[in-house]
Amino acid sequence: MKILELKCLNESQVADIRNLERICQRYEKLKGDLFLANEINFNHEIKCFYLLYDEDRLISCLTMFVPTSKEAEISAYTLPSHRGKGYFDTLLNRAIEELKLYSISDILFVEEPNGNDAKGVLKKLNAKYEYSEYLMVYNREFFKNQNTKLTLQPIPQEKIEDMISLNTDIFGGSFEDEKSMIINSINSPKIISYMAILGDEIIGTCNVNLEEEASIFGLGISQRYQGKGYGKEMLNLLLKILINMGIKDITLEVDSNNGRAYNLYIKSGFKIKTRFDYYRYS
Prior knowledge:
Elements: E1 2-6, H1 11-28, E2 49-54, E3 57-65, E4 71-78, H2 87-101, E5 106-111, H3 116-125, E6 128-138, E7 150-154, H4 160-171, H5 175-187, E8 191-198, E9 201-209, E10 214-221, H6 230-244, E11 250-255, H7 259-267, E12 270-281
Helix pairs in contact: 4-5
């Protein structure tokens, strides 16, 4: 057995993980895909991929998404035929030691409702359910051009300070966390970050990750302009851009408790693909 602790993945390692993922998905009828990029982790030096091989075969993997300095989201797969042998525990302990180096004490485990083996592990760890998110996929046939006063433009470097203030207003994160997220997103070759402009004012933001498919995240409107339909207009503009790029699969995730955003996405042509449950472990 050998274990790789990595900051990023090469094509061969990604292929190994996707193969393991497909096997586990078929076994438990899962639908979500692992996020295999580190571009928007708050620190790119964090080892966020842990791969356990038996000779050339990937047996178990663990991935960490660490967008802020407060907590890490962990997902993992182990071959069904190799479960119950402590492989996940081994990788988790390696990941925890890495998180300690960055003073990150909280973990959010991500699992799908069909993941019965994962539920047993979470119970053993005494991880506590915290919230759920829906993974939603867009139906392209739903798209219609809409009249709007908004324009959507990629965020230039000179607007970073303005966008940090806007994101803090929208999402309520700390200045440092929002700064890290914006800079990492703008500098990533796989992410396009947009600002929504009304007249001469920047009133909204949205991002799309183009790794393997188009995944929308960080969509929001300034509090002063919420409730006026601008969120829907901004989303429609972004969908138009993605459709014109020839992208087939467009997804996003929304907190199951955020009824306002959920209703917006349903009305805009998104439907639920699966649900992710998050469990906190300190």
